[in-house]
Amino acid sequence: MTVTDNPVDNGVNVEALLGAREALSEAPEAAQFQWRATCKWMNGTHSQSTVEGFFGLGEEQSHRTEYNFDADHPEIFASEDNGATPVEYVLVGLASCLTAGVASVAQNRGIQLSSVSATLEGEMNVLGILGADSDVRNGFSGIKVSYNIDADASPDDIKALVAQSQKRSAVFDVISNPTNITVEVN
Amino acid sequence: MKVTTVVIGAGHSGLAMSKCLIDRSIDHVVLERGQVANSWKTERWDSLRLLTPNWQSRLPGLAYDGSDPDGFMAMPELINFIDRYAVTAGAPVQPETTVTSVQRTDGGYRVETNQGVWDCQAVVLASGACNIASVPAVAEAVPAEIDMVTPADYRNPDQLAEGGVLVVGASATGAQLAEEIHRSGRPVTISVGEHVRMPRTYRGKDVQWWMDASGLLDETYLTVDDIVRARRLPSPQLVGTPEHTMLDLNSMSDLGIKLMGRLAGVRDGQAQFSGGFRNLCALSDLKMGRLLKTFDEWATENGVDSEVANPERFEPTAVEIEPPLGLDLNNGEIKTILWATGYRPDYSWLDIPVLDRKGHVKHDGGVVSSPGMYLMGMPFLRRRKSSFIHGAGDDARELTEHLGQYLEGQAGLHGAAG
Predict the structure, then answer these.
(1) In sequence order, which residues have a C-beta less than 8 Å from that of residue B10 and are 6 or more positions away?
(2) Which residues from chain A sit within 8 angstroms of residue B220, using beta carbons?
């Protein structure tokens, strides 16, 4: 139940989300989404990825506009640094997913947010990707997320917000659980 | 055979319904595939005790009258209690009668069994929420050398091979069995998903006393925040022991049980666990904190602070900084996997389209969309207490009321037609 006499506004339309939950539970085929990206090699370690279309609610959908993302490696890897490194995009994905969740959960729980900021740190031993030590994994050995949240709620309620956001986060799940990946060459 | 109402299942729910039907003089039969309290007699492990104290064991017309109101019934006592109830209520139980099909007819329902056919106007489904132990699909990838058991097959640790045991699931069942198996000398690793942490005793009173007295157990499906979620909440990590011990991840750690995150996959003989474990622990610590705060506020508002001990808070769940994410299932350390991953009801005999896509009967507080059909004994059917022994009473009374009105309406229709 939402609190109707509470003028909390975090800019999230919770009624629409709850309505979608109910509607999609009745029509599970509409809940099947496909998210897409395309990627084009530019030069060196520089690539450009694009997202625009996706599939959901039983039909083709598209973003308001096309979005482009340059990825590269920094100069200390002898690259030109035309964009963020791919692993930084992973941190960006996690941060924005959790933060969207914090806002949504806060709205649903009647908590007004004043400010939310997060700092993410992904630890990585690059001997893994360099193939120099087979005991070291390629990916992060761990990720630390620190939130600073100013809101009209108790410290425990704010902790519960962030915990609930992790529980419902797609990117948190993608990173913390194994996923089958199929790579084909056409 | 013709009867007004058929009740399927002679557990505490079906018997409570029968008692209410008797009180309203609605003729009926209670069909039972085995004997009264069949699941309790044949499908539960040896050491199981109720999670509710004896004083809470009350059904319409029968309340616990023994000498240990604060104790927890072991299975023989519970079976005796339910057997006694069937007799004192005078329930018309037809034992050893397995329902093979329930179909809609013009006037109501046809119930086919291995002992004959009953035609009736109303049907009450009281066959239980825990007929089949659910095992996740990932079990198919487990190496063949490892034995797999479910709580439905498990009786005691002696039936397991010597060696390590991976218990998957940490609700009441998984947590209780993990401790019992670990104490038998078989080192246990437990995989923990979403779980509900709860102290056995709080401020000197059993947690069920708090839930009961503060009105939480009477909260109805119409007023609870999110009924979908409330109905699928895992059972709290509680155990009923004579010592009133607390069962949680910390008590398991103290015993030497290894804690892992939710089992996420098995690949090449390696079990993979979610990296979200610490968040699940934080969630249940916070949730328990909110529950205890609710109790404290209720105690103050109702002037009972002087009758109970001082408020207390429990240590947060202790989790390693970097809980392990993998477990080798090929190196011989794990001999057995116990899937404590929940149960589901069996409606393979129900030939009426009332199931949702997850195989559960769709209902509104126990009133099924097919007219004259009712459901009993499901989690949060009408109230938070619905799945407890003492929860059957109010549900049975209200559903009998509804059923009685339905029959009167039918009689009225037929009278008008005639």
Answers:
(1) B18, B30, B31, B32, B35, B36, B37, B38, B86, B91, B93, B95, B126
(2) none
C-alpha distance from A55 to closest chain B C-alpha (Å) = 23
Largest CA distance in chain B: 76
> Distance from B357 to chain A by nearest Cα, in Å?
9
Nearest CA distance, A89 vs chain B (angstrom): 19
Q: B322 CB near a chain A CB, below 8 Å?
A: yes
**C-alpha to C-alpha distances, A166 to A21, A84, B241, B342, nearest whole angstrom:** 18, 24, 35, 24
Q: Write out the two tokens for A171.
A: 């990117």
> Which residue in B264, B283, B290 is closest to A167 by CB distance?
B283
| A24, B70, B193 from B51: Cα distances, Å | 36, 11, 21
Chain A residue nearest residue B293, CA to CA: A156
Distances (CA, A) of A59 to A10, A34, B202, B360: 30, 10, 53, 29
Best CA proximity match to A120, nearest among A146, A139, A85, A153: A146
Q: Of B55, B215, B20, B54, nearest to B126 (Cα)?
A: B20
pLDDT in tens, chain B (418 residues): 999 999 999 999 999 999 999 999 999 999 999 999 999 999 999 999 999 999 999 999 999 999 999 999 999 999 999 999 999 999 999 999 999 999 999 989 999 999 999 999 999 999 999 999 999 999 999 999 999 999 999 999 999 999 999 999 999 999 999 999 999 999 999 999 999 999 999 999 999 999 999 999 999 999 998 898 899 999 999 999 999 999 999 999 999 999 999 999 999 999 999 999 999 999 999 999 999 999 999 999 999 999 999 999 999 999 988 889 999 999 999 999 999 999 999 999 999 999 998 899 999 999 999 999 999 999 999 999 999 999 999 999 999 999 999 999 988 766 544 3
ipTM field = 0.80
Dig out the tokens for B404 from the structure: 């009685």
Give this prediction's pTM.
0.90
Closest-CA residue of chain A to B263: A177
Is residue B369 less than 8 Å (CB to CB) from chain A? Answer: no
Q: Which residue does chain B place closest to A25, by CA atoms?
A: B357
Cα dihedral sign, B140-B145-B150-B152: positive
Residues in B closer than 8 angstroms to A23, CB to CB, are none
**Is the minimum CB–CB distance between B269 and chain A shorter than 8 Å?**
no
Residues of B whose CB is below 8 A from A175? 275
Asked if A160's CB is within 8 angstroms of B290's CB, the reply is: yes
Contact B283 A163 (CB under 8 A): yes
Residue B276 is nearest to which of A142, A166, A178, comparing CB atoms?
A: A166
